[in-house]
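I have been asked to look over a protein record a colleague put together. This is what I was given:
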Amino acid sequence: MRTATALLMAASVLGFQILALPAAAVAARPAAQKAAAYRAPRGPDRVHPDLNGVWQSLNGANWDLEPHAARAALQMRPGPISPVPAREVLALGAVGSVPAGLGVVAGGSIPYTPEAKKQRDENKADWINRDPEIKCYLPGVPRANYMALPFQIFQSDKDMLIAYEYAGAVRNLFFKDPGPAPVDSWMGQSVAKWEGDTLVVTVTGQMDSTWLDRAGNFHSADMKVVERWTPTGPGVLRYEAEITDPSTFTRPWKIAMNLYKRQGEDAQLQQFKCVEFVEEMMYGQYRRQPLK
């Protein structure tokens, strides 16, 4: 009898300890097990996962990779009591405001060097003149993957291509390393390989003219990005990117997020070739008689 009572008491204690675990830790266990156990449908080569389809992020990373509260505008100026929207963006009202975001940077903050952080702050203070997205420049990697517009992966048994709705950007993934990129470009050079069910892509040779988001986060031409694309459930890709750039950051750092596959009528790209949309902004001043 005493033994049974002792066992019941021990079970009660153990049960209490399990219930006392943080909810996030308990919830993470089945999620991690499910992700580890998930086997995606095979692709055209019948060996690797099928990544074909139209994908899109559903987060605030393009506004700011780091955790951030909602604020009135991307570009602010000192006000009588607190900062207010800068004159250049004031007329945008709520359309130009920034929604809150949990952030996608491992550890929360980007490890800038002191000089680079100063540059980032200057970028943010002059966002409307500096953000390359405003001028419809190609977004670069990793930014292209978490903009508001979707992208499509085309996968055959030997080749893979990623087409982005924004500005008609395209990436050709090389499964045979052609060597160093002959010239720096907006989207860089992507060299891919499979590690089990994870597609690993190393991106080099990017120009320093792209940003990482709308908050002024930037990089140099020395940046290397190592992407990891892993199916974790039906219609879900876990996207991770490690960024290395000794000229700008004190150490390599990572971002991570989920990408979701569009279904039904939404599973197709539209055209957003925005170069023509910004012609007046960029070149209108050169008219013989500029518009007033």
